Amino acid sequence: MYQRSKPQRGPLPVAPRGDSPVSIIGAGIAGAWQALLFAQAGHHVTLHERSDEAMMLSTSHWAGGMLAPYCESEIAEPIISRLGLRALDLWRRELPDTPFNGSLVVAHSRDRNDFERFARLTSDHRRLDAKALAELEPSLEGRFRDALFFADEGHVEPRRVLPKLHERIIAAGGTIKFNSEPAPADLEGLVIDCRGLSARDTQPELRGVKGELILIETDEIKLARPVRLIHPRWPLYVIPREDNLFMLGATSIESEDTGVSVRSALELLGAAYAVHPAFAEARILEFGSGLRPAFPDNLPRIAIDKKHVTVNGLYRHGFLIAPALAELTLNYVERGQIDNEVMRCV
After folding, report:
1. Residue 14: is it exposed, middle or buried by C-beta count within 10 angstroms (0-12/13-18/19+)?
2. What is this structure's pTM?
């Protein structure tokens, strides 16, 4: 197992419990977890969000919500797995009803080599034959000759889980101000900047990576867990939602255009059909896309400048690693502990 470097001690705590206020900008998944852990620790937290309660302007609104550190290890750096594994514990602790039904990886015969490569590059999975796959997901009976089952992974529905996190912030004594977009310099006390791409005024190296999704509805298929279909260009997955809904995602395109291309729509819909032909009769409810904030190395970063902390660059791993990043920020603020892989002082 990959081990992180030994934590170092930094400056003295910058916002002792109960003293100066803590202002967090951005109520998406990164900011929500920061606000929750700081409020629970006894800090006077105010969470600012530029959009209203529907969070339509937040990248998190368009996210898949995959909690899949083992699957992501195929292409992600070890730090993502390390943060993701810790985050799974925090999801279980704070939201114990989070579905941890595992995830499945499947492939058709033409992509067999890529499937075997995926198996070699990942861990903590069990190979299922066709019979075992059908027992686990009856809707997939006869569809694939085998699958990889990552039993410890989970998923959340972003548009349902964000309101739950916001409720827990308020219950812990925090305040949320929607339709509020202050500049970090205008706030007193400790400021934690979780604005995503809007933070390019202080972090110009950020770029947007487009992720597209399609929301469909059908009662002909039942899935208890996400199904990832091996694809030669990017991971394509079918994620079950409540009320017979499924999310199809997600492309990863180096573009800051927010539309959904015909090519992407065809590939996403084709992926669903390849998982099960009954998806052909599903009703399309929504096309959408979000811009994931990413640094050139696609790794997250906590930048510290006295009482101004910026948490950004979560890329395609926002829901997976946000809880762990919030814990690191809290550990720094209260104890001066620095994680050398993630944090940098500026």
Report:
1. buried
2. 0.93
